[in-house]
TrEMBL record, chain A:
Domain Fatty acid desaturase, chain residue ranges per copy: 67-334
PANTHER family: DELTA(5) FATTY ACID DESATURASE C-RELATED, FATTY ACID DESATURASE 2
Pfam families: FA_desaturase
InterPro entries noted in UniProt: FA_desaturase_dom, Fatty_acid_desaturase
Protein's UniProt name: Fatty acid desaturase
Amino acid sequence: MTAIDPTAHLTAEQIEELGRELDAIRDEVIADRGEKDAAYIRKVISAQRKLELVSRGVLLFSIFPPAWLIGTAGLSVAKIMDNMEIGHNILHGQWDWMRDPKIHSTTWEWDHVSPADQWKHSHNELHHTYTNVIGKDNDLGYGIMRVDEDQKWHPFHLGQPLWNFINACFFEYGIAAYDLELGKNLHKRRRKNPEFRARAKAVGRKIRKQVLKDYVIHPLLSGPSFLTTLAATFTANLVRNVWSHSVIMCGHFPEGVQVFERRSIKGETRGQWYLRQMMGSANISGSKAMHFMTGNLSHQIEHHLFPDLPSNRYAEVAVKVRALFEKYELEYVSGPLPKQVFSAWHKVFRLSLPNKKPKVKTPVREQELIAA
Amino acid sequence: MTSTALRGRAWKLLEMVTTPLLPSDYLDLVSPLRAGADLRGRIEAVHPETGDAATIVIRPGRGWRGHTAGQYVRIGVDVDGVRLWRAYSITSPTDRRDGRVTITVKAIPDGKVSNHLVRRARPGTLIQLDQATGDFVLPEVKPAKVLYLTAGSGITPVMGMLRDTEFDDVVMVHSAPQPQDVIFRNDLHDLVADGKLRLIELHTDTDGMLDIARLDELVPDWAERETWACGPAGLLDAAEKHWAEHGVPERLHTERFRPGVVVTEDGGGGEVTFSTTGTTVDADGATPLLDVGEKAGVLMPSGCRMGICFGCVTPLKAGAVRDLRTGEITEAEPGVLIQTCVSAAAGPCDIER
């Protein structure tokens, strides 16, 4: 949808060949998937549980500043692990092949106010199928932001840096609202829809449970450390939210990432679908620890090509995927976290204002945009 | 308040502390075999029996309710990271003092679980367990005369019986390819030496398969004996026919191992049953089961329709399906879920919808 199509030099045959090459990469990992991978996720889950247990234990004495610091840091990391490397990836079905009913996309629940099944629908199904298609993929600005020049500007967008900041701080609530399609469903008629009400109730239940756990029970258990534990869990949730928000922003918002028109995905072939995932995602470069803490979403491009491959395999897959980008002369958008976060925020600021120069549009395109 | 109600409340409170996990998720980290946990067992030893069979000593979790001689247990073992469930006869007596149970496994060609257990299983490994089950068991009233008719690994449930209950007059007719293939050969010969068993050992590589008509000559009073038979389907079919022809079918008890899954080789489909709704249709080997079900009017869960969102996973209750992307075959086992949008019938199958 950008002025210059960065894939214009590829022929239809080349795109299908690219698709076959990506399929081969996928098949290779699947054939090799086994005991080591299973041991990996079990180890991560066990480490996360132990870290959370110990951190919460330390926070019982959070009235002492060193305990507060250690406990809060530990709990923040534990919550990030729960949401990113564990929750996000299990809910993608990445570990379903193990046939362990306890580590399965159909049974897993995470420390997040959006219930797993609702998130799976909006994320796995809508976002991953219609990645970066304006009007189809609500992840594109979460319905509250303008992230591409071709989206219509509205005075409401002036405030989007602020919305985005608030969304970052309360990200899990933002996600829950987004999974509920709150904006759309709060209209009078839709509010009464029994299906929506049931889903809203489920979110309410999860919020109640999490608030009770983090802001009532654990502080109460801490006795004299009530207030400091309360502050600690609030901080851990804040850290987790801001971190996840930053990582997610880096996945599709940095400069250089493409968005697509609704029309462009009609009759899309497998090769074209792959190509859209490649052009619509961006990576974060960094250390192993960095990849781990992002739940390997630093390998967003690889994740979008193969959302159901185990996350611990993305790093090795990335080498082969990158080679394909080079072979087909495509831009592999990647950079260190600060750079990507800055780039994404820059876009948020830039697009809060109307486009500088009105673009020349063909009548067909105009119609399309009005329709969208 | 009663103590049960009090405990219930305490547990509820604990659940509030651990949400969205359960207290048991944390307890499992330290004590996976405790009372109240999902039933599991720990492999404590693996003893080779023959070149391709081994006895696995298992310490069951606290929830184990024991077994009756001749019963089997389903175990879930992680092989190459994938949890696979199989049923094995219990070969230990019911009154084993240390509370351990044993299964004896023969590695079958291409058998994922059996080869893993015989050749790769290590002490200390956790496995999943079900309670013992099966009605191939000894009666409460002791019969005067007993015949055990076994072949190959069919000896395993009978070994559990032999070790558990002594009878005054027991004959065993057992077939195996060669002497070194006879599982428990030393134990059997010990029983013979102690006068507790009369054993007729047949080696099919040299003697040929047992002709059931030869029973008259091997065990002349076979028709008077309460008989337990376990082995390949051919032997059991012949035995059932033989006992029926002589008018004593009620004296024969048989145990059949799991029948093989029907998988068509040519990539063709099969008859698909959606058992919850009672719909049965023919499907080819190329149409996703999601489409097959929807076309038949079954309400199927669906999502991306391209295998990425896992919104359509549904239990496969029987039969086999083929992954349309990789060609990989998945066979029905308890707990197996398939992505209906990228799976096609590979022979008859049953989808829980």
